Amino acid sequence: MRELTIKDAINEALYQEMELDDRVILFGEDIGGGAGRDEDYPEAADAWGGPFGVTHGLQTKFGRRRVIDTALGETGFIGASIGAAVAGLRPVAEIMYVDFLGTSFDQLLNQAAKLRYVYGGKMSVPMVVRTVAGGGFRAAAEHSQTLYSLFTHIPGLKVVAPSNAYDAKGLLIEAIRDPDPVVFIEHKRLYMHKTHVPEESYTIPFGKAAIVREGTDVTIVGVQKMVHTALDAADALNEVGVSAEVIDPRTYSPLDTDTILASVAKTGRLVIVDESHPRCSLATDISALAAEHGFDRLLAPVKMVTGAHSPVPFSPPLEDHYLPSTKRIVEAVMSTVNHQGRTGNTAVTA
């Protein structure tokens, strides 16, 4: 059974879609060689493939007219992507780090996200913005944020965040074929994570969560990389007799509310693990969802395990403390299973 890293699965998805559809073009800083004309710098052609090497080899195959090294100007090439999409192409723009999307936020917020609505459904903006998020890389506050919630808040944008290579390939192909703008967020600490990935092209529909581990006592919803931390916590909980169900939403707009609520109805308890800050985050959104639509099935208060409401620290010990850990998840789960509920003791017997 063939295994690929997330990095290689994304590369393969781009390759297959570019080979299938010549409307697919790439924009980004250093996504090829990042060094101007081939005749001036022949040794630099296709040397980079972006800061993490995800697009390496694509410029050699498809040329500089379709894999376009841009200047250091996100505002310019995000605007060019919107124009290209409206004109009938299917651009995929790479922003090195999600932290830099603030430079282009007006274009995403007020142009890409709203054009279909403003023109009464007569126009579409089929573009993808690939970007990188996440802490734990010792990259400091300006290169380590997880800003999923900013884009999830905006109607008209679709927000995707795969946690494994199989999902990364299928969701990216779905994103490229989608008629609306998609923010596709990749976690830098997951690029080398391997899973089985079929060679053929396939898609994964948006708005369909994955139950990555079944359980009966508590539901744990993990946000991207936190899926793996949640699975580690589920293993630890199993040792003390607590059965945890782990859900990977995969997409945050649209969000698969049915799967989450059905799981909460089964387990009666909910813990959300989100690397981002606690205020106005995906964790708070999913907590509110459970409180509004699943309150009568909850046996204990919803718990959130998140980063602190502070910039991501550069100091390695502080960054490790900032990020949600297996220990913190286990503690949150145990507080829910041992909660004295409205009808008395609801504790799980270990």
Describe the structure.
The strands form 4 sheets. The protein has a 7-stranded mixed β-sheet, with helices on both faces. It has a 5-stranded mixed β-sheet with strand order 9-11-10-13-14, with helices on both faces. The protein starts with a strand and ends in a 5-residue tail after the last strand. It is built from 12 helices and 16 strands. Helix 1 runs parallel beside helix 7, helix 3 runs parallel beside helix 4 and helix 8 packs across helix 12. It folds into 2 domains: 194 residues, Rossmann fold (3-Layer(aba) Sandwich); 128 residues, Rossmann fold, CATH 3.40.50. 34% of the residues lie in helices and 19% in strands. The chain is of the alpha/beta class.
In short:
By secondary structure, the protein is an alpha/beta fold. It has helices at residues 6-20, 58-62, 74-86, 105-112, 115-118, 148-152, 165-177, 226-239, 257-267, 282-293, 316-322, 326-337; strands at 3-5, 24-28, 67-69, 90-95, 128-133, 158-160, 182-187, 194-196, 210-213, 218-222, 244-248, 251-253, 270-274, 303-306, 340-341, 344-345.
Structural class of the secondary structure composition?
alpha/beta
CATH class of the largest domain: Alpha Beta
**Domain module count:** 2
Sheet having the most strands: 7 strands, mixed
Oligomer: single chain
Strand order of the largest sheet: 3-2-4-5-7-6-12
How would you state the average pLDDT, rounded?
93
The CATH architecture of the largest domain can be given as 3-Layer(aba) Sandwich
**CATH homologous superfamily classification of the largest domain:** Thiamin diphosphate (ThDP)-binding fold, Pyr/PP domains
The proportion of residues forming helix, as a percent range, comes to 25-40%
Uncertain parts: none
Q: What is the chain-wise order of helices and strands? A: EHEHEHEHHEHEHEEEEHEEHEHEHHEE
- Whole-Å distance between the termini? 38 Å
Q: What is the alpha-carbon Rg in Å? A: 21 Å
Strand content: 15-25%
The count of helical stretches stands at 12
3D shape: globular
Q: What is CATH's topology name of the largest domain? A: Rossmann fold
The total beta strand count reads 16
